[in-house]
Amino acid sequence: MKTMTIKLAMAATASFLAMSASAWAGQVVWWTPNFNEARARQLVETFQAANPGVTVKLETTTTDGLPQRILTALQSGAAPDVIDVQHAWVNGYAQNKLVVPLDEAVTERDDYIPAALQYNTWNGKLWGAPYRIETHAIIINRGDFKAVGLDPDKPPQTWEAFADAAKKLTVNGKSGFAITGGGEVGNTIFRSLPFMWMLGGGIISDDGKKVLVDSPESEKAVTFYTDFFKNHLSPSSTLENDGTANRRLFIAEKVSMYQSGQFDIQSIRKENPKIDIGVIPVPHPEGAKTAVILGGWSLVVPSSAKNPDEAKKLVAFLSKSENQAILTDTFPARISAMNAERFNDPILKVFKDMLPFGRPVPAHPNWVQISQAYFDGIQRILLGDESVKEAMDGAASEIEGLL
Amino acid sequence: MQKQSTGYLFILPALMVLGMLIAYPVAYTGLLSVTDNAGNFVGLENFRRVLAARATPIAFWNTLWWVLGSIIFQVLFGVMAAILLNQNFKGRAIVRSVTLVPWVVPGIVAATTWAWMLHTEFGIINYMLTAPGLIDKPIGWLTNGNTVMPVMIAINIWKMFPFVAIMVLAGLQSIPNDLYEAARIDGASFWEEVWYVMLPQVRSVIVAITLLLVIWALNHITIIYAITRGGPANKTLITPIQIFRTAFDGMQFGQAAALSVMFFGVAIVIVFIYIRTLASNPEEAQ
Lengths: 403, 286
Hints:
The complex is a heterodimer. By secondary structure, chain A is α/β, with parallel strands linked by helices.
């Protein structure tokens, strides 16, 4: 019995040593979301062929609960070597010294969309390598436009014209323009915050020192956004709708226009091929420029990575223009990569045109709670409990305590 | 003395497991509540911040409504269902099993199904009401500030009353037949049987179940979180969800711990008052 136990213990130790040894020998563990898997595998093969000493172990993640999972891995000290993360998370990791700078790995910075680099910069250093970017535009049902006498090729440009179009489209039980007022907070931030930016407002200032949500500009933008619901141009279910719900309503032909990214196009085409899909730019106030939130993904190397040098080599490889063009699900962060054939689909043109107007969301340690306070205010307006002014003043005093 | 310490030695492993699973988390929550994210001692700062948050008093009152509304009707419907299921009728076994269905369905599945059924545009409930013309236009069950909390409570009642029914039914079945016979000889009607025989006999069962229900309602998350996440505009935000949101969405573990500590205190007071007033009667106290 005793020798048996000792033998077992020895076997366990030996296999443990063998396992950890294999993890040490030039192996890079790369966490990538499942939607990247096929393309990532293809790139890994190319990389391994060019770097014989290094092997890459691909592990796929799912977006549900991903921020918590990554944070746990980073804080536990047992993180993989390279992780795909959303731009907006990078700053928090950098401030807490959970990732290492990637200045050497990311070169030719002139070739990048500036906002993508801005997201990943903190304290003068670059902490993430952006490879994928995307923004919203307005997806429209061209058939509905024609049915009410609007020309889908000459879409409304200004807020006023857009609201008019939404009013005309609201006929026969259809809603002209669906806004979001439910689901995850981020849905409504992505869709309403840009309207504030267009007028020079915002939720908080870029340096995170001032509350802007109760400024007249911000309140005007919130009024513009919430009026779509108050004037019955957005579905009566608005308060329970997130981006996915709006897409479902669009597919069911109950909504003629809604804001989203290019990732929705495919599922609309598949589920309701009858709809003639069009994409138009996000409208802007008279005499001001449009704006959108720039979203996307970056690669980071954790401070606790076992093979940081090889990891950086992989990041440098993935940051090459031709490789970004392969890996991204939407658009690449590098301007030159955009020339690749797959980004020439005409339906993507407007999404591409919106990219230069993309801005990062403010980086603040309490951003989640700040955006929640703002979102609660939006819901109070939509519920009819408070006026825009009352709701935004209330949000402002809450946010003040969070700065 | 020697014997007693040997006894302690035997229960030591169990004590250690209990300690790790219960005492450590409780103590650690207490520690977290007075530290910031970096682990520095901040005194009562977390408590101050969490009490200053606009959502905190809203969540407190919502929790009170949620618990009271849920408990009263869960017990009422549960006892009624138990009395019904205790009667002799054809197909009783099937009805007894079917009654259990809501309780057996996993919470997250039930919640998601209800969310779809209650949806303003796609929901079957609005369809069933509008199709025969009972109402002109769909009701925003989950988007109207006046209906959303009652709807959540109704779902919770639907989910839990079968449990009450089955437990009370078990109690009813242990009542000796003599009591009924004696009551009938005295000319008791059915309702008098319910009132003077059944209810007094299952009183202790009801008291114990109610305490369980109070605790479950107090730390409930699934139904509300899956359907509304506490919205719209915090209309269905109850304190456990606020704690969850503060910790896992906002990553403010210190503040979440501070809220947990206070909530723990309130919960203990409620449970204590309950045990003191309802659960104790002269016979049961010793």
